[in-house]
C-alpha cells in the first residue's frame, strides 16, 4: 500500500505517526502541502516523501487521504480530479461535514470514497473513528482504510452515511464534552478549598482511571457506576443531584444538536 496525504497538518501528522509506529515504512508514505512548516514538522515525525504538488502525489500512490480543512475540499478536489480519474486511487476523506456525494461530484468519474470521522485523541493514538464506504469501494480497499485508521485507535464501519452525523455527535465532538466535565470538576474542587494543582491532578487521574476501567470491564458503565454508589453515601447524593438536574436529557439534547449541525454543515459545504 502506497499512501499519500493531501494536507500535512495535525491529523495527517498523527495518522502518519501511527502508521509508522505500526510498521508501515515511511518510504511508502507521501505528503503534499503548500506550507513548508507543516512539511518540516511531518519530516520530524517520519522520513516521508514531501512536496507541494497534489497532482504529482497522486501518480505515486494507490490510497489518497484528503486531510485539508472542509472549506478547502472543493477547490482541492477540482484541482486533482483529472489525476484521480487517471490513476483511480482509493480516496479517504477525514474532513468534517463533506458528503461523499459532493466529493464524488467534484472529482468526477466514479471514485471509490471512504469518508471517516476521526477525533483528536488520534493525536495520542487513542482515537475513535467511524467509517463509511461508497459503492465503488472494494473489500480490499475497505481493509486498507481500516488498517490506516486503526493505526491511531479504534475504527468502526457504519452502514449508511447519515450515521456519520451521529458518530460526529458522539465521538467526533465527544472529547470536548469530557473536557467540559473535567473543567467543571476542577472548578468545584477549587471552590471546596483544594489547590488548583491538586484539583486538576485528581480530576484528570480520575477521568483516566474511569475510562480505563470502563474499557477493560466486562460489565457496562451503569453497573460500574452502581458499584461506586454506596447506599445513602456521598456518590448517591451527587448522582441524585445530577439526575434531578436533567443530566441525561441535557446530553441527549446536546448530542442531537451536534448531529443536526453536522447535517447543516454538509449542506453548507455542498454549496461552497
Ligand atoms: N482536528 C480535529 O478535531 C478533527 C479534524 N478533522 C478533519 O481533519 C482535517 C484536517 O484537520 P487538521 O489536521 O486539524 O487541520 P490542519 O490545519 O492542522 O491541517 C490542514 C493542512 O492542510 C494544508 N493545506 C492547505 N491548503 C492545501 C492545499 N491546497 N493542498 C494541500 N494541503 C493544503 C495546510 O497547510 C495544513 O497543513 C479537517 O478537514 C478536519 O475537519 C476530523 C476530525 C477531527
Ligand atoms: O466541531 C466540529 O465541527 C468538528 C467536528 C468534530 C470535531 N470537530
TrEMBL record:
Pathway(s) this gene product operates in, as recorded in its UniProt entry: Amino-acid biosynthesis; L-proline biosynthesis; L-proline from L-glutamate 5-semialdehyde: step 1/1
Boundaries of every Pyrroline-5-carboxylate reductase dimerisation domain copy: 161-265
Catalytic activity: L-proline + NAD(+) = (S)-1-pyrroline-5-carboxylate + NADH + 2 H(+); L-proline + NADP(+) = (S)-1-pyrroline-5-carboxylate + NADPH + 2 H(+)
MF (Gene Ontology): pyrroline-5-carboxylate reductase activity
Keyword Cytoplasm: yes
EC number of the protein: 1.5.1.2
Pfam family, one: F420_oxidored
UniProt subcellular location: Cytoplasm
InterPro entries the UniProt entry points to: 6-PGluconate_DH-like_C_sf (IPR008927), NAD(P)-bd_dom_sf (IPR036291), P5C_Rdtase_cat_N (IPR028939), P5CR_dimer (IPR029036), Pyrroline-COOH_reductase (IPR000304)
Residue ranges occupied by any Pyrroline-5-carboxylate reductase catalytic N-terminal domain in the UniProt entry: 2-97
Top-level lineage group: Bacteria
Keyword NADP in record: yes
Record key words, sorted: Amino-acid biosynthesis, Cytoplasm, NADP, Oxidoreductase, Proline biosynthesis
Stated role: Catalyzes the reduction of 1-pyrroline-5-carboxylate (PCA) to L-proline.
PANTHER family xref list: PYRROLINE-5-CARBOXYLATE REDUCTASE, PYRROLINE-5-CARBOXYLATE REDUCTASE 3
Similarity-based family: Belongs to the pyrroline-5-carboxylate reductase family.
Protein name: Pyrroline-5-carboxylate reductase
UniProt organism field: Zhongshania arctica
Higher taxonomy: Bacteria, Pseudomonadati, Pseudomonadota, Gammaproteobacteria, Cellvibrionales
Gene name, Swiss-Prot/TrEMBL: proC
